[in-house]
Amino acid sequence: MTSIAVIGGGKIGEALISGLVASGVNAGDIRVTNRREERGNELREKYGVVTLSDNSQAVDGADVVFLCVKPKGILAVLGEISDSLAENDGDTTVVSMAAGISLGAMEEAVSAGTPVIRVMPNTPMLVRQGMCAIAGGRFTTDEQVETTRQLLTAVGDVRVVAESDMDAVTAMSGSSPAYIYLVAESLIDAGVNLGLTRDAAQELAISAIHGAGAMLKESGDDPTALRVNVSSPAGTTVAALRELEESGIRGAFFRAAEACAARSAELGAPADSK
Fold this sequence. Notes:
- There is one protein chain.
- The longest helix is centred in the last third of the chain and has 21 residues, at 198-218.
- The termini are far apart.
- The protein is built from twelve helices and eight strands.
- It is 54% helix and 13% strand.
- 32% of the residues are buried.
- Helix 7 packs across helix 12.
């Protein structure tokens, strides 16, 4: 039995709670805090979790604490719960679900030796199709990292990475769902331009993207092979691909990923270096 505290019952917090309960974690072993009493009541009625308003009370005796608050609030919450964490009998693993806040900054905000894990999630975890990258801090054990990894599989796939890769991870999975939404939006508009109704264009584009994603994940083939399989010589797909290549689609994604990673690094830099 693992006792879990979730600090923050917003979208990410609720997605985590929903996945954990659905995966078999006892709802009574999950304590959730939220600033609004109404929201706490909603989560308790929907999932059966224990809801509290006091963060320090929530982490008392917890095995794992998930911080599901905005990045700007992470260090303040850690300062608030630090004493309670230090008083727990065993080592409580603190898991940040916020982008940009480094392991070093979080470790400085709690008692020396507190195991801290940094996670870069993405929004598809809201439908249990997320991708979470996790990096352990100086004081985490392999067992604590594995426990966290197993818990996060309730909302999708999980990959353990080095913290030095987190800016690249942000570009590749944290922010990339927005790239796909932009592609979908563009395809829908293109379909309307060709004379389709918006409803028809939306259904066709979204279904194609969903199916292509499933093939990428489940077929075992790499993207190049899958693209080649759709591209008959001198056919319609090749004509479209030529236009995309001549418009610089690869370069656009290179530049977008680099800009995203650079902004991630900027947001995670110490305040005195900005």
